[in-house]
Design brief:
single chain, 974 residues, alpha/beta, six-stranded antiparallel beta sheet
C-alpha cells in the first residue's frame, strides 16, 4: 500500500512539473506573440510615416522645381524683350504688373526682382538714364567697384529692393557669381527676412544674352551675363501652407533643414528640437537644384504610436487557449487510467454482446423450429384430412383451421423477417419475373374480401413499365400484400386502387398536384357535375394523383403501343435499371393525425382500438419499409382521416430481356392467350379512371376498346356498323359497368339492338356486365350473356370471353411450371425422409407419395448414414436439421465423406479400364427445417446440403426444391 501511495505521489509530482513547464511555455509563447504583434504595429507605423514624409518631400521639390522653371522663363522674357531694345519693351510698371499676375506660378517666392549688370565705366550713364543713384544694402551710396548689380525691376512685394546694388552684399555677391558661372539657380544661407522675421533664403538666377550657346563655357557665361533675377523664399510660411493641404498633417511633425554644413544644421522649418521619446524618425533628402547646398526633411509622429489592442488581446487569448488545451490534456491524462479500465470493460461487454447475439440467433432458431414443427404436423394433417371424403361442415371446419394455421405461420415469418432485417442478414434475390402477372396474383388474394365488401379493387400498370424485370418477386409481393391487405382491411366503401408507373413519370405527375393537399388538411378535388369525384369509384381520395385530371397524364393511346400490348419496352438504349413507383390508394378510414408519425414503428397500431376492430400486429408496414429501402427505394403515405390513405413506395429493379416463363425452376406465371388479338369491344363506363383500368386489362389480351359514357351511346356505336357481318375472328362485345346500367330504360335499348341484327342471335353483340359483388350475378344473370365479377384479371377475362364466344384455344403443352408437374418428376423416385418427429415423417411421406414417389422414413441421423452407405438406391434425401444424437448437419457431413471416399475408389478402379466413363456419386440432400434464418441456411450449405425446405412446406415450395435437384438424377446412384 505504501509503495502504491509513493508511486502515486511521484506520478502527481511529475505531472506538476510538466504542468509548470507547460505554463511557462504558454507564457513565453504569449510574450513572443505580443512582441511580434507590437513589432508589426511599429513596422506599419513606420511604413505610414515614410509614405507621408516622402509624399511631402516630393511635393516640396516639385513646387520648387516649378518655381525655378518660371524664374527661368522670366529670365528668357527679359533677355528677349529688354536687352538692347531701345526703348525697352519692359519697364518697372510692366514688370510689376506681369510678375504680380503670374505669382501663382511661383508659390514658393515672396517676390522677384531683376538687377542689371553694370560695369563701372557705365555707371554714370546708367544712373543718368534711370534718374536715380545706386545704393548699398544699407541704403548708402554705392562705393566704386568693377561692376554693379542695381535692381531696376521688382515685384510690388519686394519693392524695397529697388535701386539697391545687389553686389554690395557679401553673400548676395557670392550668390551672383556662382549663379552666372553655373547657369543654375543658387541659394543663400537661411536668414531672417525683413518684415515677417521668418527664416528664408534668396534664389539667384543669371540672365544671359539670347545668343548664348547651350554648351557655353564658364568664361562665355560670365561674358554673356546681362543681369540677375532674384527672389526671396519665406520658407516657414510656404512650407506651412503646402503641408496644411495634406491629410494627416496633424499626425506628424515635419522639419526642413539646411545641412550644407553637416556639423551645424540650420532649421528652415519646424520646431528646433525633436522629442527623443518618439522612436520613429524618417529623413528625406531635398534637391532644390543648387549643387553647393544640401537640404533634408525630417518627419516624426507628433505622439508615440499607441499599442494596438490586438497586441494585448491576441496574446491573452492565446494564453487562455493554451490553458484550456492544457486543462483538456490534463483532464484526459488524469482520466487515462479510468478510460483504460472502461475500454477493458467494453471489451468484456462486447464479448458478452456477441455471445448474446449468438444466443439470440440460437433462440430464434429454436423457437422457430419448436413452433414450426408442430405447425407442420397440424397443417400437413389438415391437408391430408381435406383430401378425404368430408361433409360440407367438416370441410369448412378443416379449411378454417388450415387458414388459422397459415395465418400463424405468416405471423412467425414476419417476426423472423424483422429479426433478419435487424441483424442485417436479409438478402434479396435477382430473378426475372412478369410484373403484371405478379400484380394480378396479389389482387386475386383479396378478391373474395373485396366482393364481400362491394368495393372496387383494381390494378393498373402503365404501358412504359417493362414486362419482365429482374428482382426479388417474393419480397416485392410481400410489400404489395401487406399494403393491399391493409387497404382492403380498412376500407368499407369506395375503392382500393393499385397503380404502377415509372418513377420519373410519377414525379412529373406529382409536380402538377397543388402542394396545399397535405396529410390531414382539406384540399379541393376535381369532381363531376353530379358531385362524384373523378376517382376509380367516385369517392374522394386523400391523394389527388389518381384523379382523372392527373391520371390521364400517364396514359398513352399511341397506335404504336398496340403492337406491344404487354408493355414490353424495346428501347434497349435506356439504362438497365428502372425505378418503379407503386401507389396503393384506398377510401377507407384514414390514419388519425396523432398516429401518423408512428405508422412505420414495429408492433404499433394507429390507435388502441385498431387491433380489436381490424386485427393485425402492426409489423407489416415496418417490414415493408425495410424491404423497400433494401430495393433502393422508399415508402411514404398521404392520409386524411375519414377520407382515405395512399401509400406509395418505390423500388429499383433491372430490365430483363429474358422471358420470365422461360425459367421453369423459378416462375409460375402463365402466358396470356393471343386468340383475342384484334377483337373489338365497346365499354360503357362514365368514370374515366375506371374505364382506363378496364381498357388496360382488355388491351393485354389484344382487344381494341372504345369507351362510351352511357349505354345509349354504347349501343349507338354498335348500330353504326351498318349491318357488317361479324366473323368469329372479330366478335363484337359490349362491356357495361353495373352502376351505369339503368334497367328501366337500357333493357329496351338492348333488346332493340338484338332485334336489328337480322334476327340472328349469333350476330348480336355479346353483352358483359361488370359487377363488384357476387350477389349481382343472380340479379342480372338473365339479362346479360355473362356477368363478370371484379377485380378484373387478364386471365379471368380471357377465360370468360373464351366461354362466351366459344373460341377454340390452341392446344398448349402442359405447363411445366405448375406444381402438378411434380407427379412426372417424382414417379418412381426413391426418397429417404429423416426426422425424429413421427408426425412430420407422416406429413412429409404423404406429401411425397402424393406425387408418386417411393418414400422410406427413418427417425435418426445415424440410421440415415447407415442406409446411405454407397452403393444405395435413393434419388434424394430430405434431412431434418435438429435431431438428437446426430443432427442433420453432422449426418450430411458424414454422407459427403462417404461419397468422396467411394468416388475416389471407383475413380481409381475405372482408371485401369480403357474406355470407361466415370460418373460422380452425389446424392441431393435437402434440409427440412422450421428454422429459416440466414445463419441456418449458411450452415446448411457449409455442411454439404444442396438447399432446404422450410416447415411447414407447401406444394409450390416442394416443387421448386425438387425441380432444381432431383430432375435429371438416375433411378439409382451407385
Amino acid at each position: 500500500m505504501g509503495g502504491k501511495y509513493c508511486g502515486a505521489s511521484r506520478k502527481r509530482g511529475w505531472r506538476g512539473l510538466v504542468a509548470a513547464a507547460y505554463v511557462l511555455v504558454a507564457v513565453a509563447c504569449s510574450a513572443v506573440m505580443h512582441w511580434h504583434l507590437r513589432g508589426e504595429s511599429l513596422d506599419r507605423a513606420e511604413e505610414r510615416l515614410v509614405s507621408m514624409c516622402e509624399e511631402r518631400a516630393r511635393m516640396l521639390q516639385e513646387q520648387f522645381g516649378v518655381t525655378v522653371n518660371h524664374v527661368h522663363a522670366l529670365a528668357i522674357l527679359i533677355s528677349t524683350f529688354h536687352y538692347e531694345k531701345f526703348p525697352s519693351a519692359i519697364d518697372q510698371e510692366t514688370f510689376a504688373k506681369y510678375t504680380g499676375r503670374t505669382s501663382f506660378e511661383r508659390p514658393l517666392l515672396n517676390g522677384v526682382a531683376f538687377a542689371q549688370r553694370v560695369f563701372h565705366h557705365e555707371r554714370e550713364m546708367f544712373e543718368s538714364q534711370q534718374g536715380w543713384i545706386m545704393n548699398t544694402m544699407k541704403r548708402e551710396l554705392a562705393p566704386p567697384q568693377i561692376e554693379y548689380a542695381p535692381v531696376i525691376f521688382s515685384q510690388d512685394t519686394v519693392s524695397y529692393l529697388a535701386r539697391i546694388d545687389m553686389m554690395s552684399g557679401e553673400e548676395d555677391r557670392e550668390n551672383i557669381l556662382r549663379a552666372r558661372t553655373t547657369g543654375k539657380a543658387v541659394l543663400t544661407n537661411p536668414f531672417r527676412l525683413l518684415g515677417s522675421n521668418h527664416l528664408g533664403v534668396v534664389l539667384t538666377f543669371a540672365v544671359y544674352r539670347p545668343d548664348l550657346p547651350d554648351d557655353a563655357s564658364v568664361e562665355q557665361r560670365v561674358e554673356a551675363t546681362i543681369g540677375y533675377l532674384g527672389g526671396a523664399f519665406d520658407v516657414e510660411s510656404l512650407v506651412e501652407n503646402l503641408l496644411s493641404k495634406l491629410a494627416g498633417n496633424q499626425d506628424i511633425v515635419v522639419n526642413v533643414y539646411d545641412v550644407t554644413n553637416a556639423s551645424e544644421a540650420m532649421v528652415l522649418y519646424g520646431p528646433p528640437s525633436l522629442d527623443d521619446q518618439v522612436p520613429l524618425l524618417h529623413v528625406s533628402m531635398l534637391d532644390f537644384g543648387d549643387p553647393f547646398r544640401k537640404h533634408e526633411m525630417r518627419c516624426r509622429y507628433r505622439e508615440k504610436p499607441p499599442m494596438p489592442w490586438s497586441a494585448i488581446t491576441n496574446p491573452l487569448g492565446t494564453f487562455v487557449i493554451w490553458m484550456l488545451v492544457g486543462y483538456i490534456i490534463c483532464a484526459a491524462w488524469s482520466r487515462y487510467d479510468k478510460v483504460s479500465e472502461d475500454c477493458r470493460k467494453m471489451e468484456e461487454l462486447k464479448t458478452q454482446a456477441e455471445a448474446a447475439d449468438i444466443a439470440k440467433s440460437q433462440f430464434l432458431a429454436t423457437v422457430s423450429h419448436e413452433i414450426r414443427t408442430p405447425m407442420n404436423g397440424v397443417l400437413g394433417m389438415l391437408d391430408m384430412l381435406l383430401g378425404t371424403d368430408l361433409t360440407m361442415t367438416q370441410k369448412d371446419y378443416a379449411q378454417t383451421a388450415q387458414m388459422c394455421g397459415r395465418a400463424l405461420i405468416t405471423l412467425i415469418n414476419d417476426v423472423l423477417d424483422r429479426a433478419k432485417i435487424e441483424a442485417g442478414k436479409l438478402e434479396l434475390e435477382a430473378v426475372p419475373f412478369d410484373l403484371r402477372s405478379l400484380m394480378d396474383d396479389v389482387i386475386s388474394l383479396f378478391s373474395s374480401k373485396s366482393r364481400e365488401k362491394c368495393i372496387e379493387l383494381a390494378v393498373f400498370v402503365c404501358d412504359d413499365v417493362p414486362k419482365v424485370v429482374l428482382g426479388d418477386p417474393w419480397r416485392f409481393r410481400q410489400i404489395l400484400t401487406n399494403l393491399v391487405g391493409n387497404a382492403v382491411k380498412f376500407t368499407e366503401r369506395g375503392h382500393v386502387f393499385v397503380r404502377v408507373c415509372l418513377a420519373e413519370n410519377s414525379n412529373v405527375e406529382a409536380n402538377q398536384v397543388i402542394h396545399g393537399t397535405m396529410n390531414g388538411k382539406d384540399g379541393k378535388v376535381e369532381s363531376t357535375a353530379n358531385g362524384a369525384f373523378n376517382t376509380l369509384s367516385g369517392f374522394e381520395a386523400a391523394d389527388r394523383r389518381n384523379n382523372w385530371q392527373y391520371f390521364k397524364l400517364l396514359l398513352s393511346d399511341k397506335e404504336s403501343l398496340l403492337d406491344d400490348l404487354d408493355g414490353e419496352n424495346f428501347d434497349q438504349n435506356d439504362s438497365d435499371r428502372v425505378t418503379l413507383a407503386i401507389s396503393i390508394e384506398d377510401t377507407g378510414v384514414g390514419i388519425p393525425l396523432q398516429a401518423q408519425d408512428r405508422v412505420f414503428t414495429p408492433f404499433m397500431q394507429a390507435d388502441s382500438s385498431t387491433s380489436r376492430n381490424y386485427g393485425g400486429t402492426g409489423i407489416g408496414l415496418s417490414i415493408s419499409k425495410c424491404l423497400a429501402e433494401l430495393m433502393g427505394g422508399q415508402i411514404s403515405f398521404t392520409s386524411r382521416p375519414f377520407v382515405g390513405s395512399t401509400f406509395t413506395f418505390s423500388a429499383t429493379l433491372k430490365r430483363s430481356y429474358k422471358d420470365a416463363s422461360a425459367d421453369s425452376n423459378r416462375s409460375l406465371a402463365e402466358a396470356l392467350p393471343d386468340a383475342f388479338k384484334g377483337m373489338k369491344a365497346i365499354l360503357v363506363d362514365g368514370r374515366p379512371v375506371r374505364s382506363a383500368v378496364t381498357r388496360y386489362h382488355l388491351k393485354r389480351l389484344g382487344i381494341i376498346v372504345q369507351v362510351a359514357n352511357n349505354t345509349s351511346a354504347g349501343l349507338k356505336a354498335f348500330s353504326g356498323q351498318n349491318g357488317a357481318t361479324i366473323s368469329r375472328e372479330k366478335p363484337t362485345m359490349l362491356f357495361i359497368e353495373s352502376d351505369f346500367w339503368r334497367p328501366e330504360t337500357d333493357v329496351q335499348l338492348l333488346n332493340r339492338l338484338r332485334e336489328q341484327k337480322n334476327g340472328q342471335l349469333s350476330d348480336a353483340p355479346k353483352v358483359v356486365l361488370l359487377v363488384t359483388s357476387e350477389a349481382d350475378k343472380d340479379k342480372y344473370g338473365s339479362i346479360f350473356d355473362i356477368v363478370m365479377c371484379k377485380p378484373l384479371r387478364a386471365s379471368t377475362i380471357a377465360s370468360c370471353i373464351q366461354q362466351l364466344l366459344k373460341v377454340e384455344m390452341p392446344e398448349r403443352k402442359e405447363n411445366q411450371n405448375r406444381p402438378s408437374f411434380l407427379r412426372s418428376l417424382l414417379v418412381g423416385k426413391n426418397i429417404l425422409v429423416v426426422d425424429d418427429n413421427k408426425v412430420n415423417l407422416r406429413v412429409a411421406a404423404a406429401a411425397l407419395k402424393k406425387y408418386g414417389a417411393k418414400v422410406h422414413c427413418v427417425e435418426s441421423g445415424k440410421d440415415a448414414v447407415s442406409l446411405l452407405q454407397p452403393p444405395h438406391n435413393f434419388d434424394a434425401c430430405f434431412m431434418d436439421v435438429q435431431m438428437p444424437e446426430m443432427d442433420g448437419f453432422e449426418a450430411t457431413r458424414k454422407i459427403r465423406e462417404m461419397e468422396m471416399k467411394a468416388n475416389e475408389e471407383r475413380k481409381n478402379k475405372l482408371a485401369l479400364v480403357e474406355g470407361s466413363t466415370f460418373v460422380e456419386c452425389h446424392l441431393p440432400v435437402l434440409a427440412m427445417t422450421a428454422d429459416v434464418i440466414q445463419a441456418t441456411y449458411e450452415e446448411c450449405i457449409k455442411s454439404g446440403m444442396n438447399g432446404y425446405v422450410s416447415k411447414p412446406f407447401d406444394e409450390e415450395q416442394l416443387y421448386q426444391a425438387v425441380s432444381r435437384l432431383v430432375v435429371g438424377t438416375t433411378d439409382s446412384a451407385v
